[in-house]
Amino acid sequence: MAYGAGGLRALLPRLVVAVFLCAARSSAESGAPTVEGLVRRAIEAAGKVDDYTCTSTKQEKVDDKTLPEETFVLKQRKAPDCVYLKWVVEPYKNRETIYCPARYGDKIRVHEGAGVAGWFGTLSIDPEGMFARRNNRHSIREAGVFHLLKVVGERFERARGDPEDAIGHRPAVEADVRGEPSYCFSIDEESTKTEICLHRTLCLPTRVKTFDASGAVIESYTWTDYHLNVGLGDRDFDVGNPAYGF
Q1: I need a surface site. Which of 138, 150, 192, 220 has the fewest CB within 10 A?
Q2: How do residues 188-213 score in pLDDT, each as one tens digit?
Q3: H-only helix segments in the chain
Q4: Is the peptide bond before 80 cis (omega within 30 degrees of 0)?
Q5: 184 by DSSP, 3-state: which?
Q6: Least confident of 9-18, 70-79, 191-200
Q7: Burial code of 63-96, b = ≥16 C-beta within 10 A, e = fewer?
Q8: Quick check: 46 and 149 in contact, CB under 8 A?
Q9: CA 49 – CA 117 distance, rounded (Å)
Q10: d(CA 142, CA 69)
Q11: In this structure, are strands 108-111 and 51-62 parallel, antiparallel, or unpaired?
């Protein structure tokens, strides 16, 4: 049931490097974004975002099987950190999930939209339990962009003093990701290659795709249609919200 937002545990170190390449322009003739300028911009942007909504997709390979793409609406608030997801396309259409430790402790509140599983109503489940992690490579605890942006800042502070790190001088490639203007960059790391795309003005992820050594996609995530600082309140993370189906 959990949302593996970007495969953050395994993916963030690679994503962080690419995030550096999203926005700020260097004085070089190539005009490529610079690491330092982008990190500064991303950190400043993160500090100004209290909450957001977006549409997200994920498609993962689990136990050597590529699962169907999932599409859901995502809401997240920074403080207290809460996430709400509603699946809007089959095969899990109308499934809803809330993870809000401040309200429900360290439990996911979830219900299925239809089928036999829907007969059980709203469940309260362990985010690391078998039910929550079934068909999910990652935990809902890492969902959303706030965790990501925190790691970006930490990673930059560790890498800033490394004179051998030249990744920040490589050019990003402009691309359109499901209608979102983005910078994309690929990084080879050990047995995987990761393509990361970041919104050219918001500096938020638009796509992360990871390939194994054979070139097969093992996980792919997108985030589009961002709306920032919309004023999400407690009701947005309440199973009693009459607009929800819990």
Answers
A1: 150
A2: 667 877 787 788 889 888 888 889 99
A3: 8-19, 35-48, 101-104, 130-133, 145-159
A4: yes
A5: strand
A6: 9-18
A7: eeeebeebbbebbbbbeebbbbbbbeeeebeebb
A8: yes
A9: 36
A10: 19
A11: unpaired
Q: Could you tell me which of 242, 235, 1, 240 has the C-alpha nearest to residue 118?
A: 1
Distances in Å between the alpha carbon of 160 and those of 9, 73, 183? 22, 35, 22
CA distances from 80 to 99, 101, 102, 237 (A): 11, 8, 7, 11
Return the bridge partners of 58, or none: 70, 221
Token digits for 2? 């959990």
Query: How many other C-beta atoms are found inside a 10 Å radius of the C-beta of residue 119?
Result: 8
Q: What's the rounded Cα separation, in Å, for the pair 1 and 112? A: 9
Whole-structure pTM value: 0.79
Q: Residues, the chain, total? A: 246
Banded model confidence at residue 228, pLDDT cuts 50, 70, 90: very high
Residue written as token pair 């003005």: 201
| Token pair belonging to 154 | 């930490």
DSSP 31: -
Q: Which two tokens stand for residue 9?
A: 């545990």
Residues 8-237: name the CATH superfamily: Lipoprotein localisation LolA/LolB/LppX (2.50.20.10)
Segment holding 209, helix H or strand E:
strand 205-211
